[in-house]
Structure formats: structure tokens, C-alpha cells
Specification:
Blueprint: H1 3-35, H2 41-66
């Protein structure tokens, strides 16, 4: 009898942190798209619209395609 009462609590404890992380990631990518110095104004507007309108999926697309890559020198051996 106790198990059915624990299932919603477990879902809340799992989904609430995931939702918060997804929201923080979305805001981070939205700000990054707006401040990306490697893009011209048209590209910035397009990325901001993609991230804003597609929410988490748009943030993932921007992270893997439009997000600037760090220019770190390769280690030479």
C-alpha cells in the first residue's frame, strides 16, 4: 500500500532537478547565442530565434552546431 504513494514522490524528486537543469541549460545557450562574437548579426538573430522557439531541442542544436569551440592548442609529443 505504501508503494503507490512513493511513485509520484520519486517522479517529482527525479523530474524536478532534470527540469531545472534543462531550464538552466536553455537560458545559458540563449545568452551564449545572443553574445557569440563569432557570429554576424543575422546569424545571432537566427540562433536566438532557434533556441527561443525550439526550447531545449534548439539549445541542444545550438550547443552542438553553433556554440563556439574553445581554441586550445594541441599537446605535442
Amino acid at each position: 500500500m505504501l508503494l503507490p504513494a512513493l511513485i509520484p514522490l520519486a517522479l517529482i524528486c527525479l523530474l524536478l532537478p532534470l527540469g531545472l537543469l534543462a531550464t538552466v541549460f536553455w537560458i545559458w545557450m540563449l545568452i551564449s547565442a545572443a553574445q557569440n562574437k563569432g557570429l554576424d548579426e543575422g546569424e545571432k538573430i537566427a540562433w536566438v530565434l532557434i533556441v527561443a522557439l525550439l526550447h531545449f531541442i534548439g539549445a541542444l542544436i545550438y550547443f552542438f552546431i553553433g556554440h563556439p569551440k574553445r581554441n586550445t592548442p594541441r599537446a605535442t609529443t
